[in-house]
Amino acid sequence: MTPVKLNAIITCLRAHFPIHRKVVIRRVKLKLIWGSVVYGDNQITISIDKNSEIKVEILIHEWAHIRCNGVEHSECWGKEYARIYSKIIGVK
Ligand SMILES: [Zn+2]
């Protein structure tokens, strides 16, 4: 996954699945996990393991968490993940 393509997906997420807070996406070296979300006072930060081969899936996974107000892998999260996955990755 090239950075350019990931940036296009981020633009698509912001347009079609908006989050009404500032969201910053960092590509960093993570240990033991592939992605995380931190809710700060001024912004929400998504961290993605820069060495992962599945950055898009991680991004969608974390985006769905935020869209469901940070709840863990609930029904809301599952449905939101499916909706986003279908739009971004699914067969058109
Ligand atoms: Zn999760």
Write the layout of secondary structure elements.
Blueprint (H helix, E strand, L loop, with lengths): L2 H14 L6 E6 L6 E5 L4 E6 L5 H13 L7 H14 L4
This protein binds zinc ion.
Summary of the model, kept short:
The protein is of the alpha+beta class and 92 residues long. The protein is 45% helix and 18% strand.
Keywords:
18% strand; single chain; 92 residues; 3-stranded mixed beta sheet; binds zinc ion; Zincin-like
Folded structure, characterized:
- The protein has 92 residues and is of the alpha+beta class.
- The chain has one domain: Metalloproteases ("zincins"), catalytic domain (Zincin-like, 2-Layer Sandwich), CATH 3.30.2010.
- Helix content is 45%, strand content 18%.
- Strands 1-3-2 form a 3-stranded mixed β-sheet, with helices on one face.
- Strand 2 and strand 3 (44-49) form a beta hairpin.
- Helix 1 packs parallel to helix 2 (55-67) and helix 2 (55-67) crosses helix 3 (75-88).
- The longest helix has 14 residues, at 3-16.
- The chain starts with a helix and ends with a helix.
- The structure holds zinc ion (ZN).
